[in-house]
Design brief:
Layout (H helix, E strand, L loop, with lengths): L1 H16 L2 H18 L10 H23 L4 H6 L7 H19 L3 H11 L5 H7 L4 H21 L1
Length: about 160
């Protein structure tokens, strides 16, 4: 079996690993798996070589996944990826904007504040909030839109 399948299986493992030494290791592991699973082979489901190739391919893919998880990231790779962390000055600016927005909401009349908070703070949908406040949905949407525009104008003026 080894003599008839080794070249084909090695080609598969080399194609996935792209490393000659690793492909040899994966091929050895493949034959160990074949030996362990030989009793489970079902000739009605696949041809013998197809079964061997599937085991080799899956073993090589498992090896590849393991390697990519444990690969050391070099400095050149770090420079390619921007940090997802927010810079301190950006966080301060965002916090200041948030405080200004909350202050602008607090300055609204009670009715507008209630409408806006029902959408953005309570997480209600427009129909749910409109029903809760006993308003037609279109009227409610228009009022919220006007309130948002008022707040936006206040924030850009400040």
């Amino acid at each position: 079996m080894y003599a008839r399948s080794a070249n084909k299986l090695f080609a598969i493992t080399l194609g996935v690993t792209r490393n000659h030494a690793a492909a040899e290791d994966v091929l050895q592991e493949t034959y160990l798996k074949i030996w362990d699973r030989a009793g489970g082979y079902d000739p009605d489901r696949s041809r013998p070589l197809a079964w061997l190739c599937a085991i080799a391919r899956n073993t090589a893919i498992d090896w590849y996944r393991t390697q990519s998880r444990h690969r050391h990231v070099g400095e050149e790779r770090l420079e390619l990826h921007k940090s997802e962390a927010i810079a301190a000055d950006d966080r301060i600016i965002a916090m200041d904007r948030e405080r200004s927005a909350l202050a602008a909401v607090e300055e609204l009349d009670t009715e507008s504040e209630t409408e806006l908070k029902s959408i953005f703070f309570l997480g209600l949908t427009y129909p749910e909030a409109a029903e809760r406040l006993d308003l037609p949905v279109t009227t409610f949407k228009s009022r919220v839109r006007r309130t948002i525009l008022k707040i936006r104008k206040k924030l850009t003026d400040d």
